[in-house]
Amino acid sequence: MNQLPKTYDPKQVEKKIYDMWEKNGCFKGEIDPDKKPFSIVMPPPNVTGQLHMGHALDATLQDILTRYKRMQGYAALWLPGVDHAGIATQIKVEEVLRKEEGKTRYDLGREKFLERVWDWKNQYGNRIVEQQKSMGVSCDWSRSRFTMDEVCARSVRENFCDLYEKGLIYKGSRIINWCPHCRTALSDAEVEYKDIPGSFWYIRYPVEDSDEEFIIATTRPETMLGDTGVAVNPEDERYKHLVGKNAILPLVGRRLPIVADDYVELGFGTGAVKMTPCHDPNDYEVGLRHNLEQIQCIPGGAGLSREDRALQSQRRHLLPLRHRGRAPHQPPVVCQNEAPGQGRHRRREGRAHQVRARALYEDLPQLDGERPRLVHLPPALVGPPDPRLVLRRLRPHH
């Protein structure tokens, strides 16, 4: 070249330099008794596609720290890896199957579908690594890990058993986010709320041994078969005389304790709220405070549908949506005190409740074969619930 090009072309320069760094082991993290150790474990990016600007920023900061410590004389190690991102990866693979072959994972079966997932990982996991190298990151690629490789899996098993033996893992009933489309549990981070038009349903709940009745306004009548209480605001003069009595659940005849709780907003709706602890996070917390029974009713619901349209008036409400796929989710309680599918049982606190419906449980082993998921571990492994530990969820106004 007789002159410098007008614009910088990284392809002509940077790959050669990076290849030289790798060939000469510039990024290898080696134990040196004469040097202080310094290490960073890369938060593994998901193998669901390509890197984005957030990854670039995160990697830049880690690279700066690692290179700085290396130049200071530390035995520096930046450990790279990629994450399986099980649910997100499954959705991506299912989308490809549906669009390109018109099939579902059930058409392939467990083993064949897992092969497709691994193919996806090998394709996009390697793409992510190449993208990181093109940014010049100073990782020790000889130590690269995948969250489902045998080394990581063994580490998880050993740590899980260690925590169990120390008594730091216990089992209890907790409300979860359930995606009916993916048929799996979701973390709170994967749920977004969207304000959508909805309906109020007005249902009469008679008061036991009385001519009085509650008019309950709800956006989710399909959960009424799981109602175990009625809550009113303690300052609501209309209902003070009924606190401590029982309402009767229509269709079923179940006695529902009437409780006073400041969760109920004065002036909203009719001022009386049906409590379904297994199907709403706020109801779950109210149920814990007032020792309400926990009864699972979805799926099943005696034929009731979310799309049913009786007893309605229009309003807007927040609908929890699946972060990927935008499917509305259901929040059932996962009851872990006995192995799944064993019907009704009694908790140590003396409250009877029902394990999740068998139809829902039977969906879970689709990808796991005969090995149930973590939330369904048998009590012999996980142990009984610890009554000293109660995890609370803050209400929105807190």
Low-confidence stretches: 300-323, 334-398
Number of strands: 17
Task: Describe the strand arrangement of the main beta sheet, using strand numbers.
Answer: 11-12-10-13
From the alpha carbons, calculate the radius of gyration and give it in angstroms. 27 Å
Describe the protein's architecture and organization.
- The chain is an alpha+beta fold and 398 residues long.
- Helix content is 28%, strand content 20%.
- The chain contains nine helices and 17 strands.
- It has helices at residues 14-23, 53-71, 86-101, 105-108, 110-134, 150-165, 281-290, 358-363, 379-382; strands at 37-41, 75-79, 81-82, 145-146, 174-175, 177-179, 184-186, 191-206, 213-218, 229-232, 246-248, 255-260, 272-275, 312-322, 333-334, 344-346, 352-354.
- It has a four-stranded mixed sheet with strand order 11-12-10-13. It has a three-stranded antiparallel sheet with strand order 9-8-14, with no helix packed on it. Strands 1-2 form a two-stranded parallel ribbon.
- The longest helix is centred in the first third of the chain and has 25 residues, at 110-134.
- The radius of gyration is 27 Å and the shape is elongated.
- Mean pLDDT is 76; it is low at 300-323 and 334-398.
Topology overview:
Layout: H1 14-23, E1 37-41, H2 53-71, E2 75-79, E3 81-82, H3 86-101, H4 105-108, H5 110-134, E4 145-146, H6 150-165, E5 174-175, E6 177-179, E7 184-186, E8 191-206, E9 213-218, E10 229-232, E11 246-248, E12 255-260, E13 272-275, H7 281-290, E14 312-322, E15 333-334, E16 344-346, E17 352-354, H8 358-363, H9 379-382
Parallel strand pairs: 1-2, 3-4, 10-12
Antiparallel strand pairs: 5-15, 6-7, 8-9, 8-14, 10-13, 11-12, 16-17
